[in-house]
Amino acid sequence: MSAHCCSHDPTDPKSITHLTRYRRILWIALTVNVFMFLVEVVAAWSAGSLSLLADAVDFAGDAMNYAVSLAVLATALAWRARAAVLKAVSMMGFGLYVLGAAVWSVWNGEVPQASTMGAVAVAALLANIGVAWLLYAFRDGDANMRSVWLCSRNDAIGNVAVLIAALGVFGTGTAWPDLIVAGFMGALALHGGSAVIKQASAELRHGKTAPEEHGRVH
């Protein structure tokens, strides 16, 4: 999809169809994320897993992001860019929270239940792969669309990391794999948030989507 897809005339039938499809996908993503947040937060407390709790908080943050995206979808690019900054700040706040909790748990944490971690991580991974697949076509849009895609992509990566943590906890009988993965997820949120702020700032300065030299965040 062109990086300037959101700069089209809103009265253009193609643009209207494009936004309608994107809005429908956002509603699906919002519903999935709210449901998975509820599942993971209960499982995280039951299993005593910080990485699973981090993933649950991430689902909650993403649900907020999708809701904000729906609210500003038909507004001017500048407002979408400002919304993207808000979402990026929430991503980075999540990252800092997880890193701080991981440090605290080094001295105060308990060994989590690997079986619960693994089972819930598989369910979360399937949910996020589905959402990421739906959003893939919009990954090169404006900062608002890009932030939504990055959230979904990061979630899928985080789910794989939680699965690895579950295997590590099961194999070592310690909480270290859980803490390491939680730290990784926090760092990933900080990296993704900074990338979105960079693109949104460019859009606010120039009044258009960021040029392709910004590249994709891996």
From TrEMBL:
Top-level taxon in the UniProt lineage: Bacteria
Keywords: Ion transport, Membrane, Transmembrane, Transmembrane helix, Transport, Zinc, Zinc transport
UniProt keyword annotation of Zinc present: yes
Keyword Cell inner membrane among record annotations: no
Entry's localization field: Membrane
Single GO MF descriptor: zinc ion transmembrane transporter activity
PANTHER family in the record: CATION EFFLUX PROTEIN/ ZINC TRANSPORTER (PTHR11562), RE54080P-RELATED (PTHR11562:SF17)
Domain Cation efflux protein transmembrane: 26-204
Residue ranges crossing the lipid bilayer per the database entry: 25-48, 63-81, 88-107, 113-136, 156-173
Membrane topology reported for the UniProt record: Multi-pass membrane protein
Species for this entry: Aquabacterium lacunae
Protein name listed in UniProt: Cation transporter
InterPro entries noted in UniProt: Cation_efflux_TM, Cation_efflux_TMD_sf, CDF/SLC30A
